[in-house]
Amino acid sequence: xxxxxxxxxxxxxxxxxTINASGLAKALDKGMITITATFLxxxxxxxxxxxxxxxxxxxxxxNDGGDSTAVQSQLFGIAKLFSNEYAFAAVKQDxxxxxxxxxxxxxxxxxxxxxxxNVDEITGNLRAFAAMRSDxxxxxxxxLTSGGDSSxxxxxxxxxxxxxxxxxxxAALKGDxxxxxxxNTNSGGDSSLVQSQLVNVTKxxxxxxxAFAAVKQDxxxxxxxxPIAGGG
Length: 232
What we know:
By secondary structure, this protein is an all-beta fold. It folds into two domains: 1-125, no CATH class; 150-232, Thrombin, subunit H (Beta Barrel). Helices cover 0% and strands 42% of the residues. The chain is built from no helices and 17 strands. The strands form six sheets. Strands 1-4-5 form a three-stranded antiparallel beta sheet, with no helix packed on it. The protein has a three-stranded antiparallel beta sheet with strand order 6-7-8, with no helix packed on it. Strands 9-10-11 form a three-stranded antiparallel beta sheet, with no helix packed on it. Strand 7 (87-92) and strand 8 form a beta hairpin. 44% of the residues are buried.
């Protein structure tokens, strides 16, 4: 999850596990740590016991992922851990995904569970997740209006190299330099007005409050989304 300008992350014991600016935790040794995510409008804190086997123990706000008892038997062999504001998503070493937390905002992935295989990375916004698979396809779930429903662009979500999010939308950069967007139209989910310009894109940057900026090979920039957030 890219949480630049959305949250800051800290680990209570860097010798046991580190956590980067995107909220991705990396286990280094056995032990107990507290991972704290501080959001602009709320604080979310969960504690993890990380073992050499990749198991996870959580506690904190039960509604937002502090209670993982429903999936505890599946929380082993964990390779990567991601979050949005209300839920967690764990990628296992076999490429499968386990989710828990608020069922409306990404904690329930049952509708797409058969598709959650060979997953490499997961991006979260405030209320939804987008998983990028090893074949470049994308699976989404969570709040439908925040990007949890990608059905309108699903046929375009191939050869995806990177997924970036605002608070309520996603943008996928494809291998050919084109861009696909979905989610809340006021938060960058609709790029139709600039779609013809979104070619030869090398990088996408988001302003979390609702806008995207795409950098092209020639050094020019294309923006879309909420004008107040820089999308104009």
